[in-house]
Amino acid sequence: MTRPNHAFSASLKGTEQLREKLVGEITRFERQLDALKASDEPVDFSMMQTYKELIHSRREMLAQLPASF
Fold it and tell me: Which residues contact 51 (CB under 8 A, 6 or more apart)?
C-alpha cells in the first residue's frame, strides 16, 4: 500500500500560496507606480525606482518557483 507524500503536497500548497502573494504584491506595486506617474505632484524619481526594483525582485522570485501542477 502506497502512502501519499503529505510533505510534497504541503510543499506545493506553500508554493502556490507564495505565488499568489508575489502576484498580489506585483500588482499592488504596479498600481502604486502608475499612480505616482499620473500624479500632478513633482516627479519622485527615487520612489519610482524603488517601485520598479520591488516589482523586478518579486518577478525574479516568481520565476524561481517550481511550476505548479
Answer: 29, 30, 32, 33, 36
Q: What is the pTM of this model?
A: 0.77
The residue count for the chain: 69
Please give the Cα distance from 11 to 19 (Å, whole number): 12
Angle at 62 between CA 59 and CA 64, to 5 degrees: 115
What CA–CA distances, in Å, run from 11 to 5, 6, 14, 58? 10, 8, 5, 19
Q: What is the pLDDT of residues 4-48, one digit of tens each?
A: 554 545 566 778 999 999 999 999 999 999 999 999 999 899 999
